[in-house]
Amino acid sequence: MGRSLKKGPYVDEKLFRKVEKMAQQRKKDPIKTWARRCTIVPEFVGFTFNVHNGKQFLPVLVTEDMVGHKLGEFSNSRTFRGHTNKKEGIDDGAKK
Amino acid sequence: MPRIAGIDVPDKKKMYFALQYIHGIGPKFAKEILEKAKVDPDQRSNEVDEAALAQINAVIDAEYLVEGALRRQVQQNIQRLKDIKCYRGDRHRKGLPVRGQRTQSNARTRKGKKKTVAGKKSVKAK
Fold this sequence. Notes:
The complex is a heterodimer of chains A (96) and B (126). With 96 residues, chain A is an alpha+beta fold. Chain A has one helix spanning 13-24; strands spanning 31-33, 48-52, 57-61.
């Protein structure tokens, strides 16, 4: 179920202002952010965001194709260390 | 056997159903196409004359994505998700469900046939 069109896309305002400021100063430093739920708008293209995944900030270089997605889609928050190695019968980090 | 949209040759069925043998055309589009081409949906496909067939072909060509072109588009959309390395692309790459379904059980359509892991229960007993 998508978001109501009436509301328009959700964009984190502080983040957006920050991007605008950078654009004015012609700077392209990575922007550290927790706003995973923020939609990527065309103005973000070309910037790098360090998007928090709950633990670290993963760098995301925004390209044109990413417009319309959320920042969080590019910063995976799960770690999958693989299944049990059955040959040796030792757990590879999975619980149980 | 009439040819519509390339290679498809549905036969002896009512046009409304015959059209649905084409990839990308279901009940809704079949109805729309026949309305636009002014062809009776209940007419059998082998009884439809050449002119009407041409009309149907013209409508499909102009307004609908079917068969190869549609498949290509779907593939491209998936490829795009993979290329931008977003979560959904990741799920496609891993062959797991893309839309948040559970994977502890079920999800066999995406994961394929069950792969039994020997001694899985006994690991727990240890």
